[in-house]
């Protein structure tokens, strides 16, 4: 399952469960439509606490989507995870797409105030690390 929402100057993305390549491609298409009118810079808050690791084909679509968000004005992103495996996979994807230096990862299991920490990074440059 995926969801895209605009909240203030940030985009909120939610991913959960096992995402097949077709759904991940649909997320890219939905993102293109959502970002068509985007102007200026913005942050991206990604809730992937319930996401299962991606297969190779779905991962390729995720890389395309990350590049799209960066190209359209993303200045920072934060990913909220529960799984060390998911965090590792997305750190690898971020390195491959060139967004790693603007992205932070917060474990919801280790930080009960994960939403505030994520928003502090996006809106105020307060590094959660």
Describe the structure.
The chain has helices at 21-35, 56-72, 84-97, 114-124, and strands at residues 2-7, 10-17, 42-51, 74-81, 103-107. The protein has 129 residues and is an alpha/beta fold. The chain has a single domain (2-124), classed as Transcription Regulator spoIIAA, CATH 3.30.750.24. Strands 1-2-3-4-5 form a five-stranded mixed beta sheet, sandwiched between helices. The longest helix is centred in the middle third of the chain and has 17 residues, at 56-72. The relative contact order is 0.16.
Parts with pLDDT < 50 across at least 5 consecutive residues: none
Helix/strand-derived category reads alpha/beta
The CATH homology group name: STAS domain
CATH topology: Transcription Regulator spoIIAA
Relative helix content: 40-55%
CATH class: Alpha Beta
Q: Please report the number of helical segments.
A: 4
Keywords:
129 residues; alpha/beta; Transcription Regulator spoIIAA; 5-stranded mixed sheet; 4 helices
Reconstruct the topology from this structure.
Elements: E1 2-7, E2 10-17, H1 21-35, E3 42-51, H2 56-72, E4 74-81, H3 84-97, E5 103-107, H4 114-124
Parallel strand pairs: 2-3, 3-4, 4-5
Antiparallel strand pairs: 1-2
Helix pairs in contact: 1-2, 2-3
Offer a quick outline of the entry.
The chain is about 45% helix and about 30% strand. With about 130 residues, it is an alpha/beta fold. It has a 5-stranded mixed β-sheet with strand order 1-2-3-4-5, sandwiched between helices.
């Amino acid at each position: 399952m995926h969801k895209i929402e605009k909240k203030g100057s940030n985009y909120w993305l939610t991913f959960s469960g096992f995402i097949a390549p077709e759904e991940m491609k649909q997320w890219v298409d939905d993102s293109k439509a959502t970002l068509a009118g985007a102007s200026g810079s913005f942050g991206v808050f990604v809730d992937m606490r319930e996401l299962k690791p991606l297969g190779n084909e779905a991962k390729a679509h995720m890389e395309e989507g990350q590049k799209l968000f960066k190209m359209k004005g993303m200045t920072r992103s934060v990913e909220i995870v529960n799984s060390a495996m998911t965090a590792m996979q997305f750190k690898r994807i971020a390195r491959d797409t060139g967004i790693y230096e603007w992205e932070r990862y917060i474990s919801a299991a280790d930080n009960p105030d994960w939403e505030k920490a994520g928003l502090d990074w996006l809106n105020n440059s307060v590094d959660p690390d």
